[in-house]
């Protein structure tokens, strides 16, 4: 086997998806370190792939390149991937090329799915549960999604029946996970690891009892709780094993004196010698003059008790100079303390040996039960993940979705009533909470100042103004909560064209639908009111935002086309496709024609088509598709002509106007410019925007 070389990370680098602490061998290069001669010196003679990879990196000018081969590493989101040095060193035009991401993976970022994952993870109680929830599982089958939803439903029901939080306690799941791995490698557990195992067994037993007692108390809801009962039923907690741990391990993870006679004797000896040393040092400091004693301090240095004295008084303290400190200090071990310090170190060695023997025996007791401990850990983490989904769904006030068959002839193909974007709602709630906290603080300050005698009127008025400002901020936030939308796709509809003004909520609408589909697939409830009906989409694909890339010489228009090409390659007749500003970024006439052709292609079934496509657009020509093809439908975001601002409501079946000139008027564009613009707009364009 090749000898491993442990290297230390250097500066951050231009290459992505590599990590700072890895293992390097003569045959395997998996590191994030300087590609200098020292990096590949060990494999230079054989000209191995690792050596060639390192030389290639250096030739390309990346002296801190991060490359790896044949090793699993975490990508920071809880997933493991294998990175290839050869793949990382693909050359084109003298630069390293990134492997293009899949359209489905890119969609998750476009819909801000990682933010939803982090929001759900914040409701988890264990560190391992939080880590797993950083990337929510998106099942590949409808049956798996329905199983996750049943578990979430059971979690929501349990929270409701308990009438309060479902607590898992202060579990150190990562410590238990490490303990299992170390024990299976033949290593001895630490006191903290043993303590964490005991707490896990105790918590698992209490959780199992709580779930079963709740089901017994509310027997009419037992069927809803059954998924949780099935989850915790196989747990075996071994109470005798737990008692054995508590017998030798204290609450802080240290080994108890009573764990063995040898340990008790060794610690008694250690404490006795420490006491004698303290008495000796106290006597030494008392015997010195008052000025000297003030400058002396008793400390431990490398396990030996010594005095810190001023350098000019060093000769007054006979003994060994252990260290000269910064400034005018010296660390002196008095001659009389040398034999006692030696004995103390010997006693400590005996304590460490006795502790090790206790932990060795405890490890031997734990080892036969490692499979049960591992199962217990996995179950508790799974339960934590389920309950985090349930807490998040409850916090949102969300509704359990129902999947429909994509091949059925149901009248309703998708229905979301009063749906809202979960991240917008979360952002609004956080802003409202902060505003209320600010108002509360300022109100308290005003109350205190009112009772203070001699307070100047001007200062009080200033505080009152601040309170009034905070009240206005709270009132404005309460009035401007995220506006819910209704989405109801029925009959033969396969494509919905959404029109209306900029900043009116078109993009937020398709993001809301996309997140609803992903949340349902992942076992989360959907932020809408009953009934929530939607298909189980095999994949959600989106083209949202500006795909301009200067490094690849792509314009905004070309960037969109590259992404849509990948979407076409990944979509099927069971997919959800979301297109933002389809056909934009080029000549309006050509863009409209291309947009119409694209939407007609996505209206087809099978490969390259979709079950449902929702597209936002400003092209009036796309609104007319509804009148020649029953597979198309129109929707628009409402615009208030009176207030000259969008209402963010979605109007179904009605095409919208862009209202660019009205918005320009609201933004105080000079009137003479608006007059000319309206005259240039023309009768024909106006009639096109008025199509109904």
UniProtKB/TrEMBL annotation:
GO terms for molecular function: ATP binding; ATP hydrolysis activity; ATP-dependent DNA damage sensor activity; endonuclease activity; mismatched DNA binding; rRNA binding. Residues 575-591 form the DNA mismatch repair proteins mutS family domain. One of its GO terms (biological process) is negative regulation of DNA recombination. Residues 425-480 form a coiled coil. InterPro entries: DNA_mismatch_repair_MutS_C (IPR000432), DNA_mismatch_repair_MutS_core (IPR007696), DNA_mismatch_repair_MutS_sf (IPR036187), MutS (IPR045076), MutS2 (IPR005747), P-loop_NTPase (IPR027417). The keyword Repeat does not apply. This is DNA mismatch repair proteins mutS family domain-containing protein.
């Amino acid at each position: 086997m090749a000898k491993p070389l442990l290297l230390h990370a250097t500066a951050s680098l231009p290459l992505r998806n590599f990590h700072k602490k890895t293992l390097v061998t003569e045959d395997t290069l998996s590191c994030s370190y300087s590609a200098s001669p020292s990096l590949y010196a060990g494999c230079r003679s054989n000209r191995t792939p690792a050596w060639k990879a390192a030389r290639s990196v250096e030739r390309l000018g990346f002296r801190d390149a991060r490359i790896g081969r044949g090793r699993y590493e975490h990508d920071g989101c809880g997933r493991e991937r294998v990175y290839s040095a050869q793949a990382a060193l693909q050359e084109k035009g003298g630069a390293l090329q990134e492997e293009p991401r899949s359209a489905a993976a890119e969609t998750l970022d476009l819909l801000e799915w990682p933010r939803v994952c982090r929001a759900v993870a914040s409701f988890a109680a264990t560190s391992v549960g939080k880590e797993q929830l950083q990337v929510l599982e998106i099942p590949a089958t409808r049956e798996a999604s329905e199983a996750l939803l049943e578990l979430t439903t059971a979690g929501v029901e349990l929270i409701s029946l308990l009438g309060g939080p479902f607590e898992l306690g202060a579990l150190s799941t990562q410590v238990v996970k490490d303990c299992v791995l170390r024990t299976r490698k033949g290593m001895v557990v630490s006191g903290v690891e043993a303590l964490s195992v005991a707490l896990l067994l105790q918590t698992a037993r209490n959780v199992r009892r709580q779930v079963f007692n709740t089901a017994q108390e509310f027997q009419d809801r037992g069927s809803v709780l059954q998924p949780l009962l099935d989850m915790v039923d196989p747990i075996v907690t071994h109470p005798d094993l737990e008692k054995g741990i508590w017998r030798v391990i204290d609450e802080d993870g240290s080994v108890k004196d009573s764990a063995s006679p040898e340990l008790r004797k060794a610690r008694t000896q250690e404490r006795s010698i420490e006491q004698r040393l303290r008495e000796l040092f106290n006597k030494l400091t008392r015997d010195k003059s008052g000025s000297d004693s003030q400058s002396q301090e008793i400390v431990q240095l490398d396990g030996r008790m010594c005095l810190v004295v001023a350098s000019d008084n060093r000769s007054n303290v006979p003994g060994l100079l252990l260290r000269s400190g910064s400034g005018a200090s010296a660390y002196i071990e008095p001659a009389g303390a040398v034999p006692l310090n030696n004995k103390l170190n010997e006693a400590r060695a005996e304590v460490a040996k006795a502790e090790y023997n206790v932990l060795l025996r405890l490890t031997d007791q734990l080892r036969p039960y490692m499979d049960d401990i591992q199962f217990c850990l996995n179950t508790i983490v799974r339960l934590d993940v389920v309950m985090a989904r349930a807490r998040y769904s409850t916090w949102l006030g969300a509704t359990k979705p129902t999947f429909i068959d994509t091949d059925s002839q149901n009248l309703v193909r998708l229905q979301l009533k009063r749906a809202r974007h979960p991240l917008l709602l979360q952002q609004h709630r956080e802003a409202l909470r902060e505003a209320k906290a600010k108002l509360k603080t300022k109100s308290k300050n005003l109350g205190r100042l009112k009772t203070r005698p001699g307070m100047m009127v001007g200062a009080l008025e200033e505080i009152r103004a601040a309170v009034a400002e905070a009240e206005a901020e709270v009132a404005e936030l309460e009035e401007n909560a995220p506006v819910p939308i209704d989405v109801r796709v029925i009959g033969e509809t396969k494509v919905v064209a959404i029109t209306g003004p900029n900043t009116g909520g078109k993009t937020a609408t398709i993001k809301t639908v996309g997140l609803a589909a992903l949340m349902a697939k992942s076992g989360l409830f959907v932020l809408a009111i009953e009934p929530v009906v939607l298909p189980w989409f095999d994949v959600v694909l989106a083209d949202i935002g500006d795909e301009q890339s200067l490094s690849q010489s792509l314009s905004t228009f070309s960037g969109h086309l590259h992404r849509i090409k990948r979407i076409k390659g990944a979509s099927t007749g069971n997919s959800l496709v979301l297109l933002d500003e389809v056909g934009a970024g080029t000549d309006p006439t050509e863009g409209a024609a291309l947009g119409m052709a694209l939407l007609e292609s996505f209206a087809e079934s099978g490969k390259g088509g979709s079950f449902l496509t929702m597209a936002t657009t400003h092209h009036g020509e796309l609104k007319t598709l509804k009148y020649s093809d029953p597979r198309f439908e129109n929707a628009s975001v409402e615009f208030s002509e009176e207030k000259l601002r969008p209402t963010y409501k979605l109007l179904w079946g009605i095409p919208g106007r862009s209202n660019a000139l009205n918005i320009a008027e609201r933004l105080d564009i000079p009137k003479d410019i608006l007059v000319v613009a309206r005259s240039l707009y023309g009768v024909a364009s106006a009639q096109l925007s008025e199509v109904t």
